Structures
1.
Amino acid sequence: MPKFKEFIGQEVLNLAIGYLAGLLASNLVTTFFVKRGIGNLWGLTSGRDALKRDTYDWLLFISSYVIGLAVMIGVQYGMRRLRGQKTETV
């Protein structure tokens, strides 16, 4: 039973960190860019740079990937330090 609780605890931590990384990436992209659309007169009334839908989606995907990767590496490094394991240096 303790292994099961530990597994559930780790999964909750992983999902929470992943969710926060996704929100960070989404907020980062929407802060600087907006999709062209009828709601903002194809970007004419927006104070931010307007991008095509495909470009906006790719930018969101790439930023999510990079931020998620950085968060996962940081968490892995932090967990190894907490457990007292050696971290490899290049």
2.
Amino acid sequence: MDTTVKLNLLLIVLVGAICGFIIKETLAGSKFQDEGVYVSASDAAGAVRKFAQKTYGQDGFAIRPDADDGAYALLSLADSTAAATAQQAASPIIAESRIFIAKPDGSEPAANTRSAPKDPWPPLPQGFSSALTNDYMVYREQLPIDKKLQEYLENIHGNFVLDILPFSVFSDFKRIFVMMFRSRDKYSGFTHMPQWSAATTDIRKGAVYIIESKTFKSDFVHELSHIYYDGFFKPLLCPLWLSEGFAVRMQMAAQTPEQRTWYDSELARFQNGRYIKFNEFTGAQDLSPYGGNDAITWYAQAYSVVDYLLKHKTRDEFYQFSKNLKDGQPLERALYRAYGMPFNTVKALEYAWQDYLQRYVPRKPQYSAGGDNGGAGRRQ
């Protein structure tokens, strides 16, 4: 047998082995992680989820350390008046309302956004520049939108959608509308949001309205979470505690260690049994009954419970829990069908979360008792 024939036979064997491997991987790819959720081998979403699992592991969303890509030079409030009023406090509270429609003509926001039609971009206001990128339509007050800023925003978006692929893969948004304000008065006048607000989201339209500040990146990630995670539930509305808990978890992944210290005193409080009881906590439709420190406690508790649900098992259960809610199942049934026993009631979730904090989470220093009266009396 001459050399040419041998080489041809070797090539045939090699091609056959490669084809066999591809077929095996395709057939094996019908299962999303280890249990619970099955998709067909031809389902592109399943392939994306499998890629995400192999790449980012099974311990929860946004587990990759956030790369310090450096703050964009102009992403800070330059004038002294705006800088004095900018929200710089290390707090997750940036917007009460996830559902919001801004009216460029100055009229009041629409109350029922879920039935509102999907409009094109609003007219460009005077004093704003605009730019169209791969993932955004950006309006920016006062300053131009140069290539460096566009790349900065694209990098945030690219990393974010990879972190939450099981949800973002179903998004129907081709581009996110981002309106960047450099003055609080302009932001509040356009969005009708209160003076303490730094950002807000219109989930229906895929729009983010945000003030440029030192916390821009983490605030922006919080709002993107509402766009993509809450958008997964359409036309239903994600429970408020789950929506905000997931958004704060993603937000904290984008923060520096110093910016995360706001949670330490709240964790100490939770570990000492002082928290919002779960029937009230999970039933909240808005945060209007909460004020001052109570609102911060509510956000911290939402983050802590969602963090626990993601760490209790793998991302499969959390995805299935979210999907059960999307399919219209009541909270307790959705929880039980995703996590099994003992998660058959809200009270059981409360006990399990407390047991986790007591047994597995390092205790924080005792909080100061002087802060107990700062809110509306809802801290337990």
3.
Amino acid sequence: MPRFLAKGYRSGAENLHMIPMTSGTERYEKQFGVTAVEMGYITPDQLVEALRTQIQEDLEEGKHRLLGQILREQELMSPNDIETVLCKSLSHPSVTSRH
């Protein structure tokens, strides 16, 4: 189970800037979610709800889905939106924000 280092812990949707202390999928997904919020594709509350769904599935069903899959299923992001956020989260400078 990954451990997280919280920067200025606050409860609720404001606590989006937790930095995983492990590398791998967990860190990538956190960056994806924060990037999606920063780019205006989803709200902080929508991210929290998607993370809640992800964690609940992990715990109850032993199944792990990526945030992009969950947000797509909830019709909050299109495949093109997800691709744009992925490119941005991988620091591709050619991607611009939705704002």
4.
Amino acid sequence: MRRLLARHALLFGLCASGLLAAACASSKGAREDGDGSTNSGGSGNDAAAATGGTDTSSGGSGATGGTDTSSGGSGATGGADTSSGGSGATGGTDTSSGGSATGGDTGAPGGTGASAGQGAGASAGSGAGTAGLPGAAGATSGGLGNAMQSGMGSSSERYATEMVSRDNVPYILITNGWGPGFQSHTVSWDGTAFTVEAMEGMRGSSGQPASYPSVFCGHYSVQQVPDCGLPRALDQIKSLKTGWRWSANGNTGPYNAAYDIWLGTDTGFGMYLMVWLRDPPTEQPAGSPDPANQGITVANTPGVWNIWSGTVNNRPIINWVRAEGSDTSEIEFDVMDFIRDAQTRGLTITGTQVNAVAVGFEIWQGPVTNLKSEDFYVDVE
């Protein structure tokens, strides 16, 4: 979450620091908020965000990419909802106008946490000009491992931004080396699947992760907004299903595997929701553990979770975290079930729409080799 916050700030005018991460922190127990944007805010995030802002503003080509993406809206509106989806997927949805491609996602200002602000702005710069993919024409979304992936490549750029697609639905991949301790990486991708082939870096002085390589659907930390069905108003969402499969491939160090979900309005950023499938030994989410909500379950969702909550860059953040040592390498759920879970527990939900859903790895320390995100999808109805 920390990284995310910073990015959001850039695009929505909250600040010019941090990119995407929203809930990382320093040592365990005090993980600062943010994956760079959200988690580690603080001066570290602000620094990352500031540089990201420059890339974002200068990434005129990014605006072009956004145009290409939104122009693909006709493809999206042309499709009919297809009900057949693979396992867990409810099938394609009409991804109507990509009109929400106005403005890029702005990373929220870096919070005090480590993962606040993961290079959202920066990733908006380099690679921003990638041509948009056509809008999805009501394509059927295959279940995890059964999709048609499109868009292959590899980059060692710190902030590469690429358009990819899964079952003809467009997404955006960002290599996002936003943290002040970032040194180098090589990331390859095939559609929404990507591999951190190599990464070197270290934790920032304010607890920021070094990077948050990720894939997302919606209005996130760069100017491009893929025509994938998000953003969408909460009262217009019947279901917001998503699935993710990843593989550690022997990596045991300080990194998480986490969803970063942004809520807000059509003009601004509201809050972060994070779902951690891996809680590393030495890092923790933004905020603090909620004593009344430890070892809880979420309706229609596998696993047991511990809730951490607080603020990042003066924005609320709620984290559902798997217990340390209980990594989950594959999951499918409805984001709306987590939103309802928060409301049922009396936790504040800020915003009228879901702006974006992202997945990736907040990496605090290298080396990392062949850490892999095998498949990811978002299916909005």
